[in-house]
Amino acid sequence: MTRTPRLGLRANLAQFTLLVAVNALVGGMLGQERVTLPLLAEQAFGLTAATGTLTFILTFGLVKAATNFFAGTLSDRYGRKPVLIAGWLAGLPVPLLLIWAPNWGWVIAANVLLGVNQGLTWSTTVIMKIDLAGPERRGLAMGLNEAAGYLAVALTTVATGYLAERYGLRPAPFLLGAAYAALGLGLSAVVVKETHDHARLEAGSTVNLSSTRQIFLLTSFKDRTLSSVSQAGMVNNLNDGLAWGLLPIMFVTRGLPLGQIGFLSALYLAVWGLGQLATGAMSDRWGRKGLIVWGMLAQGLALAVIAFAGGFLWWAAALALLGAGTAMVYPTLLAAIGDVAHPSWRARAVGVYRLWRDGGFAVGALVAGVVADLFGIPQAIWTVAALTAASGLIVALRMDETHRRGSA
């Protein structure tokens, strides 16, 4: 006998908790690269120009952005679970390619597959949690989802940094990724349940939009709120691409050991991850817009401090602020998309938003790489800081509040 689906975190606690764990494994797949690949580019493959080193982020960002878009469409057509399993199948070869890579081309190929893995798995876990949570606790649901993912990125970054310092850049750091991929595939195939019926229940019989083209244009350009959210997501990941690709290189040139570099990267990610446990729920209580505006401005200030100041303690404080600002923004942007988009086309709207958001990795790699090669890494950081602050001002001027304060 088929059970009628029910909406809400309490009614779906077991599956929701399982999906949180699955998304932690998704984040761990990304964490295996945060410290190791920028250093591998220079030390193993002799890439010295910033634009060359950042090709792996450019590739990853482009592929993940495109895959995000298709993840929403495919999950509406075929269901959420098959898309999740396909994402894990794409991720299985990634650690092995990085371990055995004889040249940089293998690393690029690994990041193509990682982009597919992240686009399909992370997008689908977001969509599935929105399906289960219903409208009342959407911010909390997104906070838990993103917290799990980025805490796993942080913990894996610390682990791989110390593994690389003790055992070398290969193979030890990437063995963690191999374990994550195997476990994620097993859980997704055997234990995770389909959630598409929950979205159908929330949608009822009303269908507002059916054309993917309409949804793309509305989310990207036509709707003031959705387009504001999309540009903020893109700029947020633009500065995260800078933090991923250039900051470890700058810290090496300033004489920091690998262990401290791993700690700084993980501090940023840990504050980001833990902060979302609070900020998602805060957006349910106080609204989305203010958190997004102040979060973007905080990120811009943090990047300015990194560019201006020097020394481990200053950088640690600035990266903590960068993580806090990102925590204010990340789950809140997703919750705002869920507020505005109708359940019948919400998965596709999430895919479009994540197309723009993760396209920020590619834009960041290009902008930061070119500016760093021409003028130096500090100037690249100043440029991205200005873009981030400007994005916050755009949200302040264009976005409408999407969640009535106190309604939750």
TrEMBL record:
Any Pfam family matching the protein: MFS_1
InterPro entries: MFS, MFS_dom, MFS_trans_sf, MFS_Transporters, Sugar_transporter_CS
Recorded topology in the membrane: Multi-pass membrane protein
Keyword Transport among UniProt keywords: yes
UniProt-listed Gene3D superfamilies: MFS general substrate transporter like domains
Membrane-traversing stretches: 12-31, 43-63, 83-101, 140-162, 174-192, 258-279, 291-309, 315-338, 359-375, 381-399
Subcellular location: Cell membrane
Location of the Major facilitator superfamily (MFS) profile domain: 7-403
UniProt GO molecular function: transmembrane transporter activity
Cellular component, GO annotation: plasma membrane
Keywords attached to this entry: Cell membrane, Membrane, Transmembrane, Transmembrane helix, Transport
Record has Transport as a keyword: yes
Annotated PANTHER family: INTEGRAL MEMBRANE TRANSPORT PROTEIN, RESISTANCE PROTEIN MDTM, PUTATIVE-RELATED-RELATED
Protein name from the UniProt record: Predicted arabinose efflux permease, MFS family
Organism per entry: Nonomuraea wenchangensis
